[in-house]
Amino acid sequence: MIGLMQDQPISLIDILKHAARWHGSQKIVSRRIEDGRITSQTYRRTLKRTAQLANALSKFGITIGDRIATMAWNTHRHVEVWYATAGTGTVCHTINPRLFPTQIEFIVNHAEDRILFIDADLIGVLTPLLPNLKSLEAVIIMTDSSHMPNAPSTEVKWLCYEDLLAGQAEDFDWKSLSNDSAASSLCYTSGTTGNPKGVLYSHRSTLWHALASVQKDAMNVGSEDSVLVVVPMFHASSWGLAFSLPMVGAKMILPGAKMEGASLHELLETERATVSAAVPTIWNMLLSYLSDSGSNLTFLKEVVIGGSAVPRSMIKAFKQQFGVHVVQAWGVTETSPMGTMNRPLSLRPAAETLEEEFDRDVAQGRPPFGVDIKIVDDEGAALRWDGDSIGKLMVRGPWTARAYFGGAQSVLIDGWFDTGDVATIDEYGFMTITDRSKDIIKSGGEWISSVAIENLAVSDPSVELAACLGIEDAKWGERPLLLVKLVKNAKFNESALRRRLSKDVADWQLPDKIAIVDEIPLTATGKIDKRALRSQLDDIRGD
Amino acid sequence: MIGLMQDQPISLIDILKHAARWHGSQKIVSRRIEDGRITSQTYRRTLKRTAQLANALSKFGITIGDRIATMAWNTHRHVEVWYATAGTGTVCHTINPRLFPTQIEFIVNHAEDRILFIDADLIGVLTPLLPNLKSLEAVIIMTDSSHMPNAPSTEVKWLCYEDLLAGQAEDFDWKSLSNDSAASSLCYTSGTTGNPKGVLYSHRSTLWHALASVQKDAMNVGSEDSVLVVVPMFHASSWGLAFSLPMVGAKMILPGAKMEGASLHELLETERATVSAAVPTIWNMLLSYLSDSGSNLTFLKEVVIGGSAVPRSMIKAFKQQFGVHVVQAWGVTETSPMGTMNRPLSLRPAAETLEEEFDRDVAQGRPPFGVDIKIVDDEGAALRWDGDSIGKLMVRGPWTARAYFGGAQSVLIDGWFDTGDVATIDEYGFMTITDRSKDIIKSGGEWISSVAIENLAVSDPSVELAACLGIEDAKWGERPLLLVKLVKNAKFNESALRRRLSKDVADWQLPDKIAIVDEIPLTATGKIDKRALRSQLDDIRGD
Q1: Which helix (H) or strand (E) holds B417?
Q2: pTM for the full model?
Q3: Rounded to 5 degrees, what are φ and ψ at A340?
């Protein structure tokens, strides 16, 4: 028996329609790619421009399910493309411009993208690849005619975004979906091994994710919030914020291409941001800027941090120097990405000191309804929630992937997705990532967490970045090596760092060697690139 | 193209499974029907008992879609029945025991209920009807064997809840749904005209509703909250709280059959409730009790009030005497029921005084994503958001009904449901109910809001309840008559009341006559029963 409720499928375009109707004067603030100026437009205006874009897109003869790509920073135009694709039933494929050129070429061809929206400053990434992008019919530069770059020599149409919109009708007969589960967007994982793999999100999964994320115990955002969205729209969908913020009528602040400390600080202050979200690398830059310039944070209450584990020193600096609460979040591209968030739990006895609170804040947290997680051993048996047992982190739920684009087969194991992370879960259900499966160091049959050692190392004031790797060892299998990049002009005291590590790490887990390096390579998504590091080590050792 | 996410249908039982796994030690606190004692059990235990109940139910040969009824107060057992029906694919039909006996007979037969769960103190309502309830096979008394009432002379099975559970396995192979939109529960509107009409909710509509309600700008509840659920599970599904609280791991406090001031106050204090939800009648009782006993509210931060308009005097009393914030909510059975909630909006200039805040708090608020509303004139044309234009309130969205149980036809008008309320919407989107369509007073071609006059009247300290009715008038069509029930032993000053009304009501809208009455009849859901009042007036006038 089917219920008698209004059960027509809900599309992501309904979010923008709600924002335009109920929060019409609320603003999307964007830093322009063209000149770095801060501009703004209302949700009401955004819906009209999105309709203009949808009308323009329709003239390309697109049909439902066609892939339309973006290679762009966080701006109001990128938001418009997201909603115009949703409202025309096409699939928005967000491309990370920091991927290797060969990876970009692979994913555009694999997705069979017909149209590519691109920011003008990223043209240099695209043009060398153009001859190999077989499915591409048009490139639309997200700018106005006065800032249009010259067209390269190509057969592909080379169009100006604002020219395309000009004169189009400001309303559109938005496409109804045949099914809640209709595909809405596509994002490829950066793929440290093998080719990138595409996660094909649906309207249903994305709507559930957005709605779950605005709850009190997740992002906790409402119409009174002003949110600086640093996390890129091209990477894990800006953690859903380009959907969840219009859903509740919050102000959306988009940094464009400028993500260094001074620019972010300007946006945080002038737009009175109450909440922001980004990876630790970004916050390192901001904290350095604040310290160098003696600046303050007047309005910011919370920063949500994910992408990699947050060092305790960062949590402490935000709280003690600026009164800002750090909320850790964990997720992967395949989980849309919200997997867990670290929010208080009344069942756990209250923390007695601020230091104890910081100890708790380093965990990645608990899953909201809609996510289930477990940790398992190599045989797939569930491990205990004791805070010590380390296992492979598995996840399931309505916004978790079951297969990759173009792969007919489910990638699930008994309904669970293997995240590639290893973690512990404590008695209250708080999960802590201890490593990536492939990075954990296996020494004498025991596991050593490279992440734990790295986080302790960066709490040393002389250390800017740290990477811990397992090095082959005849006796133990692997032994840890710690590489550190120093803060400019800092004096390094190895024995002080070793004393620091000894406090929290068992003797047998301490790195055999600590080496200073000039650079630590990062991946396209700002994480330490251990694959590159390992091949450099091989080079150094002459393997 | 269908997305590649985990899109198997989600069942309401998944909420309790989540609570048992991630908030297993969190408690459902219940006041026992048997003796009024306060007891508690964890979510973990509740899932086990729910599995026992599901195993017991399976032995009745129930099949998917069968209706199973409850006539019960808010207790942990009622929660178990809700989830056991959800997890067996059956439909839980909640019956309001305060309906007229003929209405109860009608709806049990209309729903073809096979099994009825009932609290022992409500048996008296049921037994006279038993011979006429043709579909009923079993009555299950929600108590233990030592409190079992004697079976009446009936062919229907007469069973004890705890005996049924005893010895059953504590796990169950929960039924998967074939479709998100599978029916989950059924609730009949009290029907002031004609027979009651059944709203058939789905798993999809109920899950969306629960998830939307925990957001910051709606119920704003999380795992640290402790929530006294006074609003009955038999009426508009306890505003979804029996689903939304386990969803976030909040403590659920259930008052059983005792809803007078002293009992509620005891629960609020001993269980440290941070939030509560009920209709104004209940809060009137609590405020009287607090005033009479000189008691205080130590932990309560917010009360969500709906069901009928909240008088400004109540909002003021809660805030100024107890520091508790009143959040108004509006909805009807057909909207699951969350339609609007009154939360702040940063786009509106801040209130300058506390009095101005109270003025704002009397509105019923704005819709969250998932609800859209509009006001229309008699021809169906949308009216302006100017705070003055009064029109019929129409609603649509994924947790709004499209048809009634047993009625094949959609009841929608161009996709919108007519709520039977009339309202204004102001320039910021805040909706205020001015009346029920059938209660609005039409005088000289203009509309007079009976609700506005009633709310002003009860702000007079001598007035306990007030009802304003339109009386036929040869010249004007209708003219307002105000009936007041006085506070016990209070001295009534009509001219003081008239002066109070004159401040906020235009002269031509003032009641021609104010009459004191001994009683004002209430409906089964605690609202003023204007139909009964009108027939009493007819009797008095000898019509």
Answers
A1: strand B417-425
A2: 0.91
A3: -140, 160
Quick: pLDDT tens for A156-174.
999 999 999 999 999 999 9
Q: How confident is the model at residue A541 (pLDDT cuts 50, 70, 90)?
A: low
Considering the domain architecture, whether residues A494 and A413 belong to the same structural domain is answered as no
**Residue B541 pLDDT > 80:** no
Q: How many CB atoms lie within 10 A of CB A392?
A: 21
Question: How many Cβ contacts (< 8 angstroms) between chains A and B?
Answer: 222
What's the CATH code of the domain at B193?
Answer: 3.40.50.12780
Same domain, A184 and A66: yes
> With 60 as the cut, is the pLDDT of residue A542 above it?
no
Contact B22 A401 (CB under 8 A): no
d(CA B45, CA B20): 8
A479 and A385 part of one domain? no
User: Could you tell me which residues are beta bridge partners of residue B5?
Assistant: A401
pLDDT of residue B542: 43
**Domain range spanning residue A537?**
441-541
- Specify the residue for token string 């037969």: B109
Based on the domain organization, do A508 and A408 belong to the same domain?
Answer: no
Is residue B408 domain-resident?
A: yes
Q: How far is A413 from chain B (nearest CA, A)?
A: 13
| A356 within domain boundaries | no
Same domain, B171 and B114: yes
Q: Cβ of B251 and A346 within 8 Å?
A: yes
- Point out the domain boundary residue: A182, A211, A240: A211
Angstroms from B2 CA to nearest CA on chain A:
4
How close does chain B come to A482, measured CA to CA in Å? 36
**Is there a contact between B3 and A203 if contact means CB atoms under 8 Å apart?**
yes
Arithmetic mean of pLDDT, B470-475? 87
Residue pLDDT, tens place only, B145-186: 999 999 998 889 999 999 999 999 999 999 999 999 999 999
B88: left (phi over 0), alpha (psi -120 to 50) or beta: alpha
Q: Which tokens sit at A116?
A: 């590519």
Mark whether B316 is an active-site residue.
no
User: What residues of A are in contact with residue B247 (Cβ under 8 Å)?
Assistant: 369
| ipTM at complex level | 0.91
| Chain B residues touching residue A11 (CB < 8 angstroms) | none
B123-153 confidence digits (pLDDT tens): 999 999 999 999 999 999 999 999 999 999 8
- Same domain assignment for residues A196 and A89: yes
Picking from B176, B211, B246, the residue at the C-terminal end of a domain is B211
* Residue B239 covered by a domain: no
Q: How many domains does chain B have?
A: 3
Q: Are residues B56 and B160 in the same domain?
A: yes
How far from A254 is each of A31, A32, B218, CA to CA, in Å? 6, 9, 26
> Quick check: is A475 catalytic?
no
Give the phi and the psi of residue B289 in degrees, each rounded to 5.
Answer: -60, -45
| Closest in B201, B223, B345 to A223, CB measured | B345
